[in-house]
Specification:
Blueprint (H helix, E strand, L loop, with lengths): L4 H13 L2 H8 L3 H15 L4 E3 L4 E3 L1 H29 L3 E7 L1 H6 L5 H7 L3 E7 L13 E4 L8 E5 L4 E8 L1 H7 L13 E5 L8 E5 L2 E5 L5 E4 L4 H9 L4 E5 H9 L4 E3 L6 E3 L2 E5 L6 H20 L1
Parallel strand pairs: 3-4, 3-5, 8-11, 8-12
Antiparallel strand pairs: 1-2, 5-15, 6-15, 7-12, 7-13, 7-14, 9-10
Helix pairs in contact: 1-2, 1-3, 2-3
């Protein structure tokens, strides 16, 4: 029979206290329960550990050897528990986030520097992934995704801008040569630069104006995998290869500099911003809890400032 760790702890409590009553006071376990636990341990080991009389309790030779071997190991356990306890007050550790490239580029730069300045003992790892993943299976503490791609049974906290838009744009040279689309369906006659998710699904081009929604599936000379290839779409659009459809915030520097010209601006659709999501459990890691609280506080400040 394999000894039970609780019975081992009971033996140590009695041996260190020099008796069952004092062991009970030190451990918070009744003397009778300690006595029974020691009997089970002795039965499992097949040897007597304590000599008992009506007036005293003393270690046998086997008991003394066992206590001597256990003491360093128990000291290591105590030290490990003290480290965990100390981290409850000193927020530290590694926080791993799984995010799409749009969040890494457009959302986190407004949050991460201030967060790390506030919590210098936290190490943040950001895994950029366009796939729909199980964050725990991927070894991450939390993820950031848009509403339609959130995992089920998760706690979701708004993060970043609450309203975003997709924008369509092309270079002035391209529009001068090929004309400017007046309706989303006109894009079917234009060279359109497309993106595809790692799953193989194509990123739709959707437009909306005054309640009318239009989805088009245009063709073009360039198709890239979204994520690492997204900047190539922008570069190709700037070079006059065709029209690009992307986050307005991503294209804004080029639109404001007139490198790209807005196309069908009155049709650009709005959508809800992303969410930080994580498993709903009682003991949230300290680094994740700090990040969640930081994001919520920032949301409150942003809402107050509006």
């Amino acid at each position: 029979m394999k000894p039970d760790l609780a019975d081992v702890n009971a033996f140590v409590a009695v041996a260190r206290a020099g008796g069952f009553r004092d062991g009970a006071r030190a451990s918070g376990v009744s003397a009778s329960a300690l006595s029974e636990a020691v009997r089970r341990l002795e039965a499992a080991l097949g040897t007597r550990l304590l000599n008992r009389t009506t007036r005293s309790v003393a270690l046998t030779e086997a008991g003394a050897r066992l206590l001597a071997r256990l003491s360093p190991a128990l000291a290591e356990v105590d030290d490990a528990l003290q480290v965990v306890n100390s981290q409850r007050d000193r927020i530290a550790g590694t926080l791993r986030l799984n995010v799409p490239v749009s969040v890494a580029r457009l959302v986190l730069p407004n949050i991460v520097p201030a967060f790390l300045a506030a919590y210098p003992d936290i190490r943040l790892e950001v895994i950029v992934d366009e796939n729909f993943v199980d964050v725990l299976a991927a070894g991450c503490d939390a993820g950031i995704r848009y509403d339609e791609r959130l995992e089920q049974d998760m706690i979701a906290v708004p993060i970043g801008p609450r309203v975003q838009r997709f924008a369509c744009a092309a270079s002035p040279a391209y529009l001068e040569k090929h004309g400017t689309p007046r309706h989303p369906r006109d894009l079917l006659k234009h060279a359109c630069l497309r993106g595809r998710f790692p799953s193989g699904a194509m990123a739709a081009w959707e437009f909306e104006r005054k309640g009318e929604r239009v989805k088009v599936d245009p063709a073009g000379p360039l198709l890239v995998q979204l994520g690492g290839g997204t900047d190539l779409l922008v570069d190709a659009a700037i070079a006059g290869t065709g029209a690009v459809y992307l986050f307005e915030q991503w294209l804004r520097p080029y639109l404001s500099g007139a490198t790209l010209h807005p196309v069908l601006k009155s049709w650009w659709p709005e959508f809800a911003g992303p969410y930080l999501y994580y498993p709903g459990r009682k003991l949230v890691p300290a680094a994740l809890r700090a990040f969640v609280d930081f994001v919520r506080a920032k949301n409150h400040l942003d809402n107050t400032a509006r």
